[in-house]
C-alpha cells in the first residue's frame, strides 16, 4: 500500500488514514464493501416514494464525489438517500408528482448552502460551546440506538410477520462478521462487513429467501430514466414543496453535525475547523441540489458507512470515493444493481446490529475520554433527557414539518446545556 507522508495530525491507530491510498485490488474490494453497506437504504427511499432506484444510486455517487471535492478530500463520508424527507415527499408525489419533490429537494439543499455561507462569514467557534462532550456523547449514542428498531425489523420480520428463517440468517450474518472482525489478519481484517454480507447472502440463498428471478430478468445495460429539471418538465412553482421540505433541512443539519462529531472521534481530527463546518454543509447541500436536478431524493451522510469506518479502521477518502464511482457505474448496469438489491433484509439487519452499535459505542467513548462528571446533576439531567427523547422516538409534528426524535433530543440537549448552571445549589 502507498502511504501518505506522516503529518502532525495523522491518526496512527488507523490501518489506512484519510489520505492513504490502497493498492488497486484492495481499493476495489474496500470500496465495494461500502457500496454494499449503503445500497439497501439508498434504494429503499426512492422505492417508498415512487422514484427510480437507479437514479437515487446515481445521485448518491455524484453527491458523494461532490462532497469530497467541497471538503478538499479531508472527510471520509458517504452520502445516500435521506429518510428525513420521506413523509413529505410521499405527500408531494401524490399531489403534484416528482417536479414538486425535485423543487423540495433543491430548496432543502439551498438552505444548507445559505447556512454554510453564513458560517463562512461569521465562523463556527460557537460549536464547542453549544455542543460540549456532555451533549455530543449522548447525541451520538442516540444516533446509533435510534436505528436499533430498524435493524431488528430487518432481522426478524417478513411482511410484518416474525420469520424464524429470517432471524437465523440475521444472527448467522452477525456472528460470522464478528468472527471475521476479531480473528482475520492482514487485508481480510479490513473487509469483515463485505465477507459477512457474502456469507449471509449464501445462507439466505440456501434457505430460499433470495429472489434470483429479478437478477436473471434484469438487463446488463439499463439507462436510468432521469427526470431532469427544466428538460422533462415545464417549469412551475410548487410553494407547498418548498415550505414543506426546506425547514426539514434544519433538522437534518443536526444529524449532519452528529455524524461529523463521530468522524472527529474516529479520525482524531476536528472537521469543524478543518476543512470547516461551512464546507461540510455546503458539500451536503450541493449534493441535494444536484439530486433534485437529475431526479433523485435529497441526500445525507450515512451512519452505516461510518460504522464500517469504525469497525475496519480504514478511513481512506479514496475508498469512499471509489464507492461513489461504483454507485454511478452500477446505476447503469441492471444485473449488478439487481444482484445487490436482492440482498435480503435479514442479512442487512444482522450487519446493522453491529454497525449501529459501533456508532453508539463511540458516543460512550466521548463521555469516557472527556471525563464527563456524572456527580454533577446538570450532566445527569442533560444526558437523561437526550437519551429518553432520542431513543424513545418522540417527535414534533407541525403540518408537513416534522422534528425527528434525534433532532428534538439535540435541541433539548443544547438548550439545557446553555441554561442550566454548572452546579446546582445543593452542590455548591
UniProtKB/TrEMBL annotation:
Keywords: Membrane, Transmembrane, Transmembrane helix, Transport. GO terms for molecular function: xanthine transmembrane transporter activity. It is found in: Membrane. Its main location: membrane. The chain crosses the membrane at residues 24-45, 101-119, 131-152, 164-184, 191-217, 237-263, 317-341, 347-368, 380-397, 403-420. It holds the Pfam family Xan_ur_permease. The keyword Transmembrane applies. One of its GO terms (cellular component) is plasma membrane. It is a multi-pass membrane protein. Belongs to the nucleobase:cation symporter-2 (NCS2) (TC 2.A.40) family. This is Uracil permease. The lineage of its organism: Bacteria, Bacillati, Bacillota, Bacilli, Lactobacillales.
Amino acid at each position: 500500500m502507498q502511504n501518505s507522508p506522516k503529518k502532525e495530525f495523522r491518526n496512527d491507530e488507523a490501518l489506512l488514514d484519510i489520505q492513504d491510498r490502497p493498492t488497486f485490488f484492495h481499493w476495489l474490494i474496500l470500496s465495494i464493501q461500502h457500496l454494499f453497506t449503503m445500497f439497501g437504504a439508498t434504494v429503499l427511499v426512492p422505492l417508498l416514494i415512487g422514484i427510480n432506484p437507479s437514479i437515487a444510486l446515481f445521485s448518491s455517487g455524484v453527491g458523494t464525489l461532490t462532497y469530497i471535492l467541497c471538503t478538499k478530500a479531508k472527510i471520509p463520508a458517504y452520502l445516500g438517500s435521506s429518510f428525513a424527507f420521506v413523509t413529505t415527499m410521499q405527500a408531494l408525489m401524490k399531489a403534484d408528482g416528482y417536479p414538486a419533490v425535485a423543487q423540495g429537494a433543491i430548496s432543502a439543499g439551498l438552505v444548507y448552502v445559505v447556512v454554510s455561507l453564513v458560517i463562512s462569514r461569521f465562523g463556527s467557534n460557537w460549536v464547542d460551546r453549544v455542543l460540549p462532550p456532555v451533549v455530543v456523547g449522548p447525541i451520538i449514542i442516540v444516533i446509533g440506538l435510534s436505528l436499533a428498531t430498524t435493524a431488528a425489523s430487518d432481522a426478524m420480520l417478513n411482511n410484518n410477520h416474525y420469520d424464524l428463517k429470517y432471524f437465523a440468517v440475521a444472527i448467522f450474518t452477525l456472528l460470522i462478521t464478528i468472527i471475521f472482525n476479531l480473528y482475520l489478519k492482514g487485508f481480510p481484517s479490513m473487509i469483515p462487513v463485505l465477507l459477512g454480507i457474502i456469507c449471509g447472502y449464501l445462507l439466505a440463498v440456501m434457505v430460499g429467501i433470495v429472489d434470483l428471478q429479478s437478477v436473471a430478468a434484469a438487463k446488463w445495460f439499463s439507462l436510468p430514466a432521469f427526470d431532469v429539471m427544466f428538460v422533462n418538465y415545464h417549469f412551475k412553482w410548487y410553494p407547498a414543496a418548498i415550505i414543506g421540505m426546506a425547514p426539514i433541512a434544519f433538522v437534518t443539519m443536526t444529524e449532519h453535525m452528529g455524524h461529523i462529531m463521530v468522524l472527529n472521534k474516529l479520525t482524531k481530527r476536528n472537521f469543524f475547523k478543518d476543512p470547516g463546518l461551512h464546507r461540510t454543509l455546503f458539500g451536503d447541500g450541493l449534493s441535494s441540489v444536484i439530486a433534485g436536478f437529475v431526479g433523485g431524493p435529497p441526500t445525507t451522510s450515512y451512519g452505516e458507512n461510518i460504522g464500517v469506518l469504525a469497525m475496519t479502521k480504514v478511513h481512506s477518502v479514496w475508498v469512499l470515493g471509489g464507492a461513489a464511482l461504483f454507485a454511478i457505474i452500477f446505476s447503469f448496469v441492471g444485473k449488478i444493481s439487481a444482484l445487490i438489491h436482492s440482498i435480503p433484509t435479514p442479512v442487512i439487519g444482522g450487519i446493522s446490529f453491529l454497525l449501529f452499535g459501533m456508532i453508539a459505542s463511540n458516543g460512550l467513548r466521548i463521555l469516557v475520554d472527556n471525563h464527563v462528571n456524572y456527580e454533577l446533576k446538570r450532566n445527569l439531567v442533560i444526558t437523561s433527557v437526550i437519551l429518553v427523547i432520542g431513543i424513545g422516538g418522540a417527535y414534533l409534528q407541525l403540518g408537513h414539518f416534522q422534528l425527528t426524535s434525534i433532532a428534538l433530543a439535540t435541541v433539548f440537549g443544547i438548550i439545557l446545556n446553555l441554561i442550566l448552571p454548572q452546579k446546582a445549589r445543593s452542590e455548591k
